[in-house]
Amino acid sequence: MTVSSEDRSATLRATLDPLSWPDRFDVLREAEKAARSSDERAAIVQMTTKLADAALVALSPEWEGRPFKDAILRLPSKRLRGALTRAAKRARDRYVVDAIANGLAPLDEQSSRRRRFAVGLDERAIEMPLALATARLSAPGEVLDAGSALNLPVVRQIVGRPVARVTHFTLPGTTEPVLPGDADRFVLAFGDLRALTFPDGAFDRVVCVSTLEHVGMDTTRYSDQGGHASGSGAAALAELMRVLAPGGELVLTVPYGRSLDGGWFRVFDRAGLTELLAPTSSQRVESRFFYYDSGWLEGDDVPPAVTVDTPFFDDVITGVAVVRVLKSGGTA
Question: Is residue 221 part of a domain?
Answer without folding.
Answer: yes
